[in-house]
Amino acid sequence: MPLEFRNIKKYTRLLDPRNNFQELQVESEVRFHPLTGSTSRITHFATFQGFPKKDLTPLAESTRSTCPFCDGKVETITPKFPADMIAEGRIKLGETVLFPNLSPYDKHSAVAVVTREHYVPLSELTSRQLTDAFTAAFQYFERCAKDDPEAEYPLVNWNYMPYAGGSVIHTHLQVYATSTPGNFHADLIGRSRAYKEKSGRNFWADFLAEEMRRDERYIGRTGNVEWLTHYAPFGTMGDILFMFPSRASSWDLLPQDLSDMAQGLHRVFRYFDSVGIHSFNLALYPGDRGQDFFWTHGILSPRISINPATGACDVNAMRQLYNEPFSMLRPEKQRDDIRAFFK
């Protein structure tokens, strides 16, 4: 079954006030997700030279005294797990401390504090710190599975800095295990199953092979993890897709896979830093155990203000109420910029 990277280009005619009202034709593009068919718009694009770097130190210092994860407060004001679930009360690995979420998203819901320091610039987060944080999360998932076999989908998401919805500056992950994956996640699983039933093939294997053949958005590999820019992105600054080939579910991930992912994240963060991006969302999408039609993968989506002078959010009515993403970057150009950090 050939994959279709469908798109529709559109052209707007207008009289440009920047050029004595001469007629100008402006291009935009609608792209269709190769699996789900959902649309994403590529628009407003111009040559991207990066944003001015923003010093986040004043923000970090202004929030340090009230941070619940600093100066030993993580030991005194964060909750503990019941002893019959985690005897130690919290999971600790390297600098990571993982504990129950006081405002849980699901039955099994935790927070993983990644660093001892209140603020670590994005480019200075180490592969070791990242590996330990994700490893601690998966240790938690193993405990959840013993307590509740319905905790089928172990999920990790990351809201880094306020533009991405991060309410605490101190670096931390949201970790939860659930029987009900989110709407987009469930749609991916269902359509991957349908693709297998219709073609006899794994969509994700076909997708990766086709992206590598085209070599338009494929970035490179770190160990067992493959990295691409997303053909139909969610974010205004494009998305980075990372895949764990042949790892059907989170339960199939090996310790080396998490280390390989951390190596790639560190490289992407260096790219973000180089272009003045200092906020992002990250999500993992695992499949069901034992199936052969889905590969565990993740999406890393930069977050910005579309007008720093006003602090305007990059999620507007189009995204929030129509569920229609738009990106100001062409994924193919973004791939070229990121690939330099994978050499």
Summarize the structure in words.
The chain has helices at 57-64, 73-76, 127-147, 183-199, 203-214, 255-274, 317-320, 331-339; strands at residues 7-16, 22-32, 39-42, 91-93, 96-100, 108-113, 153-160, 172-178, 218-222, 225-229, 240-243, 280-285, 297-302, 305-307, 312-313, 326-327. Helices cover 28% and strands 25% of the residues. β2 (22-32) and β3 form a beta hairpin. 38% of the residues are buried. The protein is built from 8 helices and 16 strands.
Summarize this structure as a short list of keywords or feature phrases.
28% helix; four-stranded mixed β-sheet; alpha+beta; single chain; ten-stranded antiparallel β-sheet; 2 domains; HIT family, subunit A; 343 residues
Kindly report the spatial arrangement of strands forming the biggest sheet.
Answer: 4-5-6-8-7-12-13-11-10-9
Report the sheet with the most strands, covering strand number, pairing sense and barrel closure: 10 strands, antiparallel
Strand/helix succession: EEEHHEEEHEEHHEEEHEEEEHEH
Compute the CA-based radius of gyration: 21 Å
* Mean pLDDT over the full residue set: 94
* CATH class type of the largest domain: Alpha Beta
Percent helix among the residues?
A: 25-40%
CATH architecture of the largest domain: 2-Layer Sandwich
Poorly predicted parts = none
Spatial shape: globular
Q: How many distinct helices?
A: 8
